[in-house]
Amino acid sequence: MSGRACRITFLPIGKEIDVPEGISIIKAARAAGIHINASCGGAGICGKCRVIIEQGTVDGGISEKLSEADRAAGYRQACTARADGDVTIRVPEESGLAKGGLTTEVSVRNRASMHVYDMQSLRREGIFLPPVEKLVLELPPPSILDNMADAGRLVQGLTNQYNEHQLTITLPVLKKLRRVLREKDFLVTVTLSRPVNQKGKTFVSNVQPGNWTHRNFGLAFDIGTTTIYGILVDLNSGRVLARAGDYNGQIAYGEDVISRIIHAEKDEGLAQMQELVIATINKTISQLLVKAKPPGVEQGGIDRDEISSITLAGNTTMTHLLLGLEPDNIRRAPYVPVTRVLPPLRAADLGIDLPRHTVALPYPCISSYVGGDIVAGVMGSGMYRTDLLTLYIDIGTNAEIVIGNKDWLACAACSAGPAFEGGGITHGMRAATGAIEDFSINPETLEPMNLTLGNQPPIGICGSGLLVIVATLFEHGVIDQSGKFNRNLGTPRVREGKSGYEYVLTWQEESGTDHDIVINEVDIQNFIRAKAAIYAGVKTLVEEVGLAITDIEQIILAGTFGSFIDLDSAMTVGLLPEVDAERVLYVGNGSLMGCWMSELSNHIRRDVVDTVRRMTGFELSEVPHFKNEYIASHFLPHTELALFPRLGARLKKIRVVSKG
Amino acid sequence: MSGRACRITFLPIGKEIDVPEGISIIKAARAAGIHINASCGGAGICGKCRVIIEQGTVDGGISEKLSEADRAAGYRQACTARADGDVTIRVPEESGLAKGGLTTEVSVRNRASMHVYDMQSLRREGIFLPPVEKLVLELPPPSILDNMADAGRLVQGLTNQYNEHQLTITLPVLKKLRRVLREKDFLVTVTLSRPVNQKGKTFVSNVQPGNWTHRNFGLAFDIGTTTIYGILVDLNSGRVLARAGDYNGQIAYGEDVISRIIHAEKDEGLAQMQELVIATINKTISQLLVKAKPPGVEQGGIDRDEISSITLAGNTTMTHLLLGLEPDNIRRAPYVPVTRVLPPLRAADLGIDLPRHTVALPYPCISSYVGGDIVAGVMGSGMYRTDLLTLYIDIGTNAEIVIGNKDWLACAACSAGPAFEGGGITHGMRAATGAIEDFSINPETLEPMNLTLGNQPPIGICGSGLLVIVATLFEHGVIDQSGKFNRNLGTPRVREGKSGYEYVLTWQEESGTDHDIVINEVDIQNFIRAKAAIYAGVKTLVEEVGLAITDIEQIILAGTFGSFIDLDSAMTVGLLPEVDAERVLYVGNGSLMGCWMSELSNHIRRDVVDTVRRMTGFELSEVPHFKNEYIASHFLPHTELALFPRLGARLKKIRVVSKG
Lengths: 660, 660
Prior knowledge:
The structure is a homodimer.
Chain A: E1 5-11, E2 15-20, H1 25-32, E3 50-55, E4 58-60, H2 68-72, E5 75-77, E6 81-83, E7 87-90, H3 93-96, E8 113-114, H4 119-125, E9 132-138, H5 150-162, E10 167-169, H6 171-183, E11 187-193, E12 202-209, E13 217-223, E14 227-234, E15 240-247, H7 257-264, H8 269-291, E16 307-314, H9 316-323, E17 345-346, E18 359-362, H10 372-380, E19 390-395, E20 398-404, E21 409-415, E22 435-441, E23 448-452, E24 460-461, H11 463-475, E25 494-497, E26 500-506, E27 517-520, H12 521-544, E28 554-558, H13 560-564, H14 567-572, E29 584-586, H15 590-600, H16 602-614, E30 615-617, H17 626-632, H18 645-659
Parallel strand pairs in A: 1-7, 8-29, 10-12, 13-16, 16-18, 19-28, 21-30, 22-24, 28-29
Antiparallel strand pairs in A: 1-2, 3-5, 3-7, 4-6, 9-11, 11-12, 13-14, 14-15, 17-18, 19-20, 20-21, 22-23, 25-26, 26-27
């Protein structure tokens, strides 16, 4: 996509929407809240999404499903036609039928707004304060009347020229200092590692002959159980110069943390696990160094020696394995990690292929199941210094939740189960090509509009699709509060299947599989259990500190699922508490983002220890009323409807359209 | 010697002296200030030292030089007879002739009193404050309601049970923490490395299962150019449990620092030099661990893992080579070392065979020629906190001098040349068996009393002997103020030799060589140049800070030579300024002693950086009036006699006896 915007007008309803050039018409319709029947996921197979181009042109949208006459009349398939400038589109009755011939209006999907970091404002806030700084010095060469030691000369220069005090020169620097000073006639670039608090010492962590102040780089790494992501950051501008990622090399020993721990408990197992994760990090670093192109430089590439610092975050198990700490008690009651806070280290001491002067900062953990990835998110998103009562949530197999503000923070992990990753759902799958990721329904015919990743024929349902499907079915009365299907809808889409009643999302012939793609009552129960665990966790936690879930003012979403989550759906089903959409932020990979912010901010490095100390970790299983909360959450949205005051109004509107 | 004291009475003069049992009668006489002729160095050869036992008995003293009748009459040879109880001894006329038949009384030799460290008083002064402490903790085991991390549990225990704060746990400790805590049911011994200043953090540097608080050990090492000495210290009592030493493995590359630097400048030379010194240290550590026997333990031996700390000091070149710092500019004008102060290190990082938790503290240096060995002496002797204006001096080929008190310190190195180590002296030698180390003269006959190391026939003169010989010859007018012999003494002992006039200390047949042992005018000039360099250095330094040399109130002597130096002689010849004998202390190996004190005292560790900052290093060659001072010092004791007010009186007394 070029980034140019097009305006699309949908008739007969007359709804206008501005979309990026190149977007498919069906996705534009979805974004505008217009329902167009589409069973095949936007793959161009079912041919149900015919629209008429009344003004302007589109790119594509022609298939054998359209006759010559259709094409001449301006018919196109909405799923494969792409915006190519301003265009007016009519949705014919058969494609989007609604009472009175109007195209069905469905609720617009609300995604959380991406939290974008503006370096200028970070500077203004004092957050942009890189812990590693390079200064250039021109020193007087020694003479017999001024023959202080090389180190003393360097310190004197830093004191006189930059008012630096309390300096300690590390041994690796001392080892090369004599030669470096004399290589460019006592013109030298000094790398200073600032103390995180004012009492500390500043370390001279590197010296280079000549002026290298324009080249000062750091690395940030998210050490995921599955994937390791790294970015290379320009510490002068704060910008990300390169990104790279790879599967965590430990994956050969199991996909989850428990199997990794079990292997680490074997002879040499811990050392092996550490070597594997370090090997992946080293491979990723090599890629980043090659890919990065510093500004104002013709040739890309950065030397290892120019990396001043690396910050890493991962869950508690990944952090233990990274540092070679025994993870044994993480998986055994009472679930005791070796440590929460961690001392700063030399990257080279961990086996990371970086020079001896590079400092490694691993993010501290809270408990066995709330790790450094979450702490990084709390720090990087600024949650720890906000006035708003905020819910930070990272949804995966475990959902880690943090609630609080600048004054207090409480956290816990909820066993949501794998539903949000497609696990335990009949046709569930990971977010991959062919996964139904978005959905709407024609309230009259109950015909679906399926949108798939990669616009391929559906092969299953991913987490974000599941959420929208359940919410939409509930909103339109296809299922009731307890997730049971209305048996009297008179559509072949709802039928009794092998596992009870089900809704057919895609018939076999329009799917990418050899069977119909369905969602059944067992799937819906699994989904409800997952969302109930999370909501009950949030509610329990917020009530443990004497507040109500309705007091939450802001939600910060992290993780892949967070980026795809439909906010209205999440609030309809009772996964998230009701909060204004503009008060929901998405930070992407919170762990990586927090490490990036740490590379840029001594402010954050200083505050992290204090924040971790303030973060009270709860074991939800040990909080007496959690179980009751969990049971009470086994409804859509909840047994206590008063917790979702806005839902009633929304349902009324939807159902009026649907039944009116 | 058993340590029992005997009283010896010398007749006819009636002088009494208390000496340790087993001392030779001739040494007792020397200590009492009684001259007995003895040309052969106490080897029993010359037979000139016959004395009569009038009361009591002695052990030995019988040789073929004594007839049966002599023996029966109570004659014994003073050199080989040893005190065996109280005894009265007559010195016959032929052995110690003096005017009027009295035994010659000569000046008693004053040695500096050994500075003895009393741990109790160090404790009272607050100096005994070991930087590494072991504490035992009994922790509650974790439960589901108290499942904080292992590290947090440890810190909480230290805070609750010992009021410890600001703790950082090192990675090596974190790596074994889980297992160690559980090995003895959460009974654990924690090693704390205290910060040197109150702002700093305390490091948890080791953990051991069970209670090991009674075993806490440290090492102190003097890294000499020639020899490396180490001691193993009990950090609970402060006592030295073992001593060991060996030649510095670098010695194969030359005996002096310059040849070591030259080798270090070659490819791989620096790494090689570092490996060699580390290898010697490692060998010495192994010996210390085997030799040490902790108190209250049947079986000796200490485990490497029990060593909490090691402090090392050496001259600036040795310190550079130990740490792998390039020493190149130490030997080239303007003589710039890489660094003065040094960060604390992990011993293992230097290749020292100690566990990762052992901290290595190298003593800082002042300049290329005033090194960590001197700083260690200044710290360990307490000079840096005395009110008295003190001269600290370590005499070798270079004499390093420090002048000052608790408010200021100035230091310099003087090129004394090798005279004090026997170099450049016709019959000079190192302090080894057969070296004349003490001397007196019969003022009438000018016959010598030579005492040699090991009581062997003389083969040469060592530094301390040279000092006493020159001083004695001067005191008795055998040589004049400029070191020239009185040509008119009428004794065969003074004669014209190959290098001008000379005094025959030992005739060939009484010596251990094939020639007469002599001291000639060239030797004396060399000696005068050496003492002049030192005295001029001291005078220049003290005047540079606006004081006079006569203001010096205390002298601290370090080094081997310092232990043998005769104070009266040193002040007679003008090597040392005049100070009361009780204000002269000997600290032995100042470098080793300072390291030992550092192992026991955070006080000293804290103050050392500040002290080094206060120590102004002077390049004497760059101080304009040094050359004049040097020339003015080319007399015995000095051109300016007023600088030695007590000498006149002493000389008068000696010469009255001599000429009376």
